[in-house]
């Protein structure tokens, strides 16, 4: 695949410098540890500081969500490789010791390990740190590997938004952790790919698909899905993902939901909107009360063609208000 | 190509319904004429109404830019087909006769023809309508077809932003037209493709490229470019586009510019940022005074892989302020 990059070794640095070129008025960039953070981090009063991150290749996540009303710091790993504990610890160290930090971690074994190691080291320094772990991906049926494989994927962006708005309102660390866990418990995502991601650091794509084949349940690092079938229409994809979510929620008429339709990297907006329209029709058939909709390229897998669908059951009207609250992040 | 759509005949309708599903709180949707417009159109006091549009396949342009501080109405044609005069006339008719309308037209023969026909019909109805024509594409060398081929491409989004902010400040129709022409005169864009766009209404892509080939100067409907060469790096593309723009501007050190790096549809953000970083370095070498940078997928050619680079020489500090002014549009 032809990729608009220079040397693969420096791709993350080049990307972050490009982002910083655009946003240097309002974010800072620590080049040594690949951190993007709010320029006014020290002036945010006593707001709890939200830190998230992960491997690169998921842009605009997470640095595209740094800004007032969302994340305070994004920690950026190499392509599909989580940030090291050292990087996460340096992110925490950006913040004055007197303030509290919440880590928003996606549920991948290596990510969780590195973030929790950093949390432990920060606590040894006398810092106040806690975390939530996002595990919205319900692509895998209940089996022995279920919890392990309930990965953190696009729904994470909704967690960033809700917690970011609540933190701005002065929620404490304890309150944010509780809120985060409540939201994560109601948040489910399923993805479908029409092509694999081509990792420029690897020789081969992580899986292969025939032309005109769809692969349900794929992860965002090329993790395998649960079924391949011949692609026929947007509606068919929508019905599959929607029905899987229905079986998870067992929703009732008028249940209130927020919805995120997310392009996985190379999916044009025309297709994202067409797919979202199929979801709209299915929601109407089920008489769901859709309170919030977001459509766009929000958490990706490099150049993967495909889409993910996230539902969040809104248990508290404040969740809806926080989803709709003003925000300064580049790519919300 | 596998595309997440249903029937090709209804793709524009499905797309607009998907967009409306997301934004019905703040936009209205006229399904008969494919119009997306501000819900508060009637309450905008005496602001001049900005209308733009064109064929589909360029999403998020132009409906993604409808909102306070940018466009008032977007008129949406079929894939790569401009809206009819009737559609544009209906867009103008949304507005009370007492108010003024400015059409922002991209410089393609059919677009210009249809918009100007509608303008003439509206004037016969006693309406006050004028227009500007955006022709930012400088991909073609000076030759007999130069003006014809100076198409309106991604730079149009910067015109929407500046004129939208000025309209909100109360600029008159005459002032907006003059401002628009000044901005357009300083606005130049060049694109490069790594793959053609696959129009779902056509059997074949509009041009073919070898794997690992770059095509400079392509248009947004598959119009041919000026040179193919083997792709080697992001930096090489950046140098080519940057030097062409340099030869157009003949800039001097410290000249102030706004820059738009635009993904053409299927280009992941990681590549857009990497490319933007190369542009940053080139600007530093030339000691340009870069006042504003925007990076993202803003005006596309369906699923084309590639990038366009727009420069706007900032002749007036208000242009910078308007580029940075608050805006409510979905995809700015």
From TrEMBL, chains A, B:
Name this protein carries in UniProt: DhaKLM operon coactivator DhaQ
PANTHER family (UniProt xref): TRIOKINASE/FMN CYCLASE, TRIOKINASE_FMN CYCLASE
Any one GO cellular component localisation term in the record: cytosol
Domain DhaK, chain residue ranges per copy: 7-332
PROSITE patterns given in the database record: DHAK (PS51481)
GO molecular function (one): glycerone kinase activity
Biological processes, Gene Ontology terms: glycerol catabolic process
Pfam short name (any one): Dak1
């Amino acid at each position: 695949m032809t990729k608009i990059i220079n040397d693969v070794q420096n791709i993350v640095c080049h990307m972050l410098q490009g982002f910083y070129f655009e946003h240097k008025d309002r974010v800072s960039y620590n080049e040594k540890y690949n951190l993007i953070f709010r320029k006014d981090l020290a002036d945010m009063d006593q707001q709890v500081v939200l830190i998230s991150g992960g491997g690169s290749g998921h842009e605009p996540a997470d640095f595209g969500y740094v800004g007032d009303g969302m994340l305070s710091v994004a920690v950026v790993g190499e392509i599909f490789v989580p940030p090291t504990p050292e990087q996460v610890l340096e992110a925490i160290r950006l913040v004055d010791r007197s303030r509290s930090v919440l880590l928003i971690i996606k549920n991948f074994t290596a990510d969780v390990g590195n973030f929790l190691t950093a949390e432990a080291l920060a606590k040894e320094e006398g810092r106040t740190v806690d975390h939530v772990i996002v595990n919205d991906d319900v692509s895998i049926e209940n089996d022995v590997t279920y919890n392990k494989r309930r990965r953190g994927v696009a729904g994470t962006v909704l967690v960033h938004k809700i917690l970011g708005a609540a933190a701005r309102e002065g929620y404490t660390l304890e309150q944010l952790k509780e809120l985060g866990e409540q939201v994560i418990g109601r948040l489910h995502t399923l993805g479908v790919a029409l092509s694999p991601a081509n990792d420029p650091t690897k020789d081969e794509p992580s899986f292969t698909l025939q032309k005109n084949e769809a692969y349900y349940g794929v992860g965002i690092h090329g993790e395998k899905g649960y079924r391949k079938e011949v692609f026929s229409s947007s509606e068919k994809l929508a019905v599959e993902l929607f029905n899987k979510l229905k079986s998870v929620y067992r929703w009732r008429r008028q249940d209130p939901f927020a919805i995120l339709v997310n392009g996985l990297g190379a999916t044009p907006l025309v297709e994202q909107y067409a797919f979202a329209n199929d979801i709209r029709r299915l929601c109407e058939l089920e008489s769901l009360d859709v309170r919030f909709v977001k459509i766009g390229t929000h958490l990706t897998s490099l150049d993967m063609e495909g889409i993910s669908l996230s539902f969040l059951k809104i248990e508290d009207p404040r969740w809806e208000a926080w989803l709709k609250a003003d925000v300064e992040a580049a790519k919300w």
